[in-house]
Design a protein that fits this description.
Number of strands: 7
CATH architecture: Alpha-Beta Complex
Shape: elongated
CATH topology: Spore Coat Polysaccharide Biosynthesis Protein SpsA, Chain A
Helix content: 40-55%
Distance between the termini: 17 Å
Structural class: alpha/beta
Strand content: 5-15%
Oligomer: single chain
Radius of gyration: 26 Å
Bound molecules: uridine-5'-diphosphate, magnesium ion
Length: 337
């Protein structure tokens, strides 16, 4: 069990809060208080019953202590602690799994996702939206590298996969209970939550906002970790990379066939044919092409094995009637400060 269980979370009546907010936090000690100072008044104006869960993703600073302090002052603030750094996507999953609200909002802990926007997510939900995605209009303080790589990534993903992710849609969204249940049934390890949220379906809406600059600290996403996330996204939502060998095989085989015709003509009708050369080259090309085609076939099997290994649900129903959706109905005992 990743989380430390200290005491049951909610008040004795176990009533379900209307709204849960999940905040992954990795070395965000200086952002906890400012975030709460802005977020709590917004939530209080929306509903009398809410919880804010910080998922401390193995921070090496005082993030957990700051959340604990806040939780002592306000029992609606909760803490889940990972035993080490498992990453942003895992922290989101854990927070959502332990959230009890009828709707769950996830947002970053560095104030780049303005708490005021939660009001608009909430209103869209009340208006019938089941997944309400916040989409940022313009990056506030992203580097040129980040903007270019992220643009290229969304382009490639949309070409390779049928799951479309809106550029600018980060992990800032609200999901209703049905969507949360469906999302939690996707238990793959290499997660790209943005894609999964599209994959599960439901009434999807978007709210456009202007991103704020990071309040304190620095981004935890290095170029390397962004590339890893991009790899998870592309490889878990597209089988196309596996088919590349097949494509190369077909091209090489066709080229070999054309070339073979050419060398036969040279051998039959001219005096320039070098003995042995044409047959060796043609054999090499044909075997090379065959090998690539066999790789493709293997790739198709590996791709299907991968699909099965992910164990995503075969279908998702509204109203949580899906066969193994039971855990979503349970009020999970969870950790707090
Ligand atoms: N985060 C996390 N674990 C990680 C990296 C990041 O929980 O390994 C959290 C981080 O504390 C923040 C959110 O995920 O609340 C987004 O991270 P960050 O702001 O560094 O990403 P960026 O906004 O630069 O893409
Ligand atoms: Mg950030």
């Amino acid at each position: 069990m990743l989380m430390c269980r200290i005491m049951p979370l909610m008040a004795a009546d176990c009533s379900q809060p209307m709204l849960s907010v999940v905040v992954p936090a990795y070395n965000e000690q200086d952002n906890i208080e400012p975030l709460l100072a802005q977020l709590v008044p917004v939530l209080e104006s929306l509903t009398p019953s809410f919880e804010i869960t910080f998922v401390d993703d193995g921070s090496r600073d005082n993030t957990a202590a700051r959340v604990s302090d806040a939780g002592r002052r306000d029992p609606r603030v909760r803490l889940l602690r990972f035993s080490r750094n498992f990453g942003h996507q895992a922290a989101l999953f854990a927070g959502i799994e332990h959230a009890a609200g009828q709707a769950v909002v996830m947002m970053d802990g560095d104030l780049q996702h303005p708490p005021e926007i939660v009001r608009r997510l909430f209103d869209e939900w009340r208006g019938g939206g089941e997944v309400v995605q916040a989409v940022r209009r313009a990056p506030a303080d992203d580097s040129l590298i980040k903007r270019t790589t992220s643009g290229a990534f969304y382009h490639v993903l949309s070409r390779l996969s049928r799951t479309k992710v809106t550029p600018g849609a980060s992990d800032f969204r609200l999901m209703n209970r049905d969507a949360v249940c469906a999302f939690l049934q996707c238990r793959e390890r290499c997660r790209f939550n943005r894609g999964l949220v599209q994959w599960i379906g439901f009434d999807y809406r978007e709210v456009v906002y202007d991103a704020a600059p990071r309040h304190a600290g620095r981004s935890k996403y290095s170029l390397r970790s962004m590339l890893r996330l991009a790899g998870d996204a592309i490889f878990s939502f597209s089988a196309w990379p596996l088919r590349l060998a097949g494509l190369a095989g077909v091209v090489v085989s066709l080229a070999a066939a054309v070339y073979l015709i050419y060398v036969i003509i040279v051998a039959a009708f001219t005096k320039f044919a070098v003995p042995g050369w044409s047959s060796i080259l043609a054999t090499l090309l044909i075997i090379g092409g065959l090998q690539l085609i066999v790789l493709w076939i293997l790739g198709e099997y590996v791709g299907r094995l991968y699909e099965e290994a992910k164990q995503r649900p075969i279908y998702i129903l509204r109203g949580r009637k899906t066969a193994d959706a039971a855990p979503c109905n349970d009020r999970r005992e969870s950790a707090t400060v």
